[in-house]
Amino acid sequence: MSSLDVSIPDHIARAVVDPKAYADDTALYDALRWLRTNQPLGMTHIEGFAPFWLVTKHADILEISRQNDLFHSGDLPTTLTTVDADAKVREMTGGSPHLVRSLVQMDAPDHPKFRVLTQAWFLPQNIRKLEDRIRTIARKHVDHMASLGGECDFVADVALHYPLRVIMEILGLPPEDEPRMLRLTQELFGSQDPELNRGGEALEDSDATLAAIQAVLADFFMYFHQVTTARRADPQDDVATVIANGKIDGEPIGDFEAMSYYVIVATAGHDTTSSSTAGAIWGLCENPGELAKLKADPSLIPGLVDEAIRWVTPVKHFMRSATQDYELRGRKIAKGDWMMLSYPSGNRDEEVFDQPDAFRVDRGASKHLAFGYGAHLCLGQHLAKMEMRILFEEMLPRLKSVSFNGAPERAETNFVGGPKKLPIKFEMV
User: Fold this and answer.
1) Does position 64 have pLDDT exceeding 90, yes or no?
2) What does the alpha-carbon distance between residue 292 and residue 295 come to, in Å, rounded to a whole number?
3) Chain centroid to CA 228: how far?
4) Torsional sign, CA 191, 196, 200, 201
5) What's the DSSP call for residue 253?
6) What are phi and psi of 304, to 5 degrees?
7) Are 401 and 427 in contact (CB under 8 A)?
8) For residues 283 and 405, what is the distance between their CA atoms, to the nearest angstrom?
9) Given CA atoms 214, 371, 294, 30 in this order, what sign does their dihedral have?
10) Which residue spans within 128-197 are E strands per DSSP?
C-alpha cells in the first residue's frame, strides 16, 4: 500500500490537532466523522509535527490499548507535541521526551509497580467507604447552587469545586489550598487556551507554551515537596502519605516520580470529573426531555453519568508508539511509528453507538473509551463515576428545570478539557 493511500488530507488533520476546534466542536466532529468513514486509520503530515497515525475507530483504539507490550506510552511523547518542543524537552531532560514521569508516561515493568502503590485506594470496595463523606460534600454544593437565586455559571460555581474538594480530602490536603490547586490545574491543562493559561493571553509559539508549562510544574513540585516532607515526618491515612512513603523494588520512590505522581492524581483527579459534570448539565439544557426522563426514573442517573462522560470525553487523546511492525486495518504500522488515539472519535463511532451525537441518558454508554482501556485504564474511574452519581442523586430531586442563560463555552485544548463557561438559569425546590 502506497503512502498516498494512507495519507489524511491536510485540512482534516489540522482540524483534529487544532485546540480551537475542540472549543467549537462542529468542525472537529465533522472531521472525525469523515475519517471514520473514509480513512479510519491514516497518516498525518502536518508542518511542524512528526508524522503520526490517527486512530479514529473504537475497535482499533481497543486493539492498541490492550497490547501494551506492542504499543508503548513512554518511548515517544505521550501527548501530541511539535518537533521543536520535543527537541527542547529532550534537551532539558537529558534525552527524555517527558517533563513529568507519571503513570501516563510509563510502560512495564515500571508502570505496574507504580500503579499498585495507590491502586487499593481507588478500588470500588474501598471508595464505597467514602460515600457518606462524598454525599456530605455533594449536598453542600447543591445547597450552594440553590442559594444562587436561580442563575449561575455552573462551571465556576459548582462543577470546578465539588470534585476538587473530594480529591483534596483523599490526598489529605487542606481546603485553604484549593484555590491554588485549581489555578495550577487550569494553567497546566489549559496551556493552549488564552483564558486559562498562565499569563492569560494567547501564547505565540511552542517555546512560550513550554515555558508556561515548566513554570506551572515547578510550582506544583514545590508545593508537593512540602507535602512529602510533612507526610514522611508524620504519616496520615491519605493518598499523599502513600506516595510520600512509597517504595519501588524495596527502595524509596524517587523525588521526580513522587512529584509526578502527586500531579497526575491531583489534576486528573478532579479536572476531568468537573468537565463531565458540567457536560451533564450542558446536555440536559440542550435536551430538556432527558431531564424529564431522569425525574420520572432516578435509576437512570448512572446512565446520565456514563453518557455525560462519553459525550464530553475530557481526555481527547494519548499517543502510543509501536515497538515492532504490526498490521492494523490493513495498514502496515512500522516499528517506531507514532500513533494518536482519538477518544472523542471512538466515543462517537457509529458502529458502537446509535445516533452517537445525541445526548441520551438511557443509552447505556458503558462501552465508552473516555477512561482508556487496558493497563492504562484510568485509576480513578470508579471514584469519578461515584462522585457524579452522588451529586446528581442530591441535585435532581430538587431541580425542577434548567436551561442556558447565555452562550456556553468549551476550553481550547486538544488534550484535556471540557466546558469552561456554562451560564444557566434554573428552578430548585
Assistant:
1) yes
2) 5
3) 25
4) positive
5) P
6) -60, -45
7) yes
8) 14
9) positive
10) 151-153
pLDDT number for residue 200: 66
Residue 1: is its pLDDT beyond 60? no
Confidence at 415, pLDDT banded by 50, 70, 90: very high
Instruction: Give the pLDDT of residue 10.
Output: 96
Secondary structure of the chain: what % helix, strand, coil (to 5)?
Answer: 55, 15, 35
Sign of CA dihedral 235, 136, 388, 302: positive
Contacts of residue 235, Cβ cutoff 8 Å, sequence gap at least 6: 241, 244, 245
State the Cα–Cα distance between residues 56 and 37, nearest whole angstrom: 10
Q: What are 281's three cell numbers?
A: 448539565
Spatial CA neighbour of 185 closest among 177, 99, 311: 177
4: pLDDT strictly greater than 60: no
What is the per-residue burial (b if ≥16 Cβ within 10 Å, else e) of 180-219? ebbebbbbbbbbbbeebbbeeeebeebeebbebbeebbeb
pTM to 2 decimal places: 0.95
Q: Is the pLDDT of residue 202 over 70?
A: no
C-alpha span between 326 and 45 (Å, rounded): 20
Q: How far apart are alpha carbons 378 and 270 in whole angstroms?
A: 13
Q: Which fold has domain 3-428?
A: Cytochrome p450 (1.10.630)
pLDDT at 2 over 50: no
Cα 338-340-344 angle, rounded to 5 deg: 175
Sign of the Cα pseudo-torsion (249, 251, 252, 257, in order): negative
Q: What percent of the chain has pLDDT over 90?
A: 89
Cell digits of residue 55: 486512530
What's the grid cell of residue 17? 490537532
The span from the CA of 362 to the CA of 103, in Å, is: 33
The whole-chain average pLDDT of the chain stands at 94
Taking the C-alpha atoms of residue 170 and residue 148, their distance in angstroms, rounded to an integer, is: 28
- Spatial separation of the C-alpha atoms in residues 184 and 179, rounded to whole Å: 9
H or E element that contains 319: strand 317-322
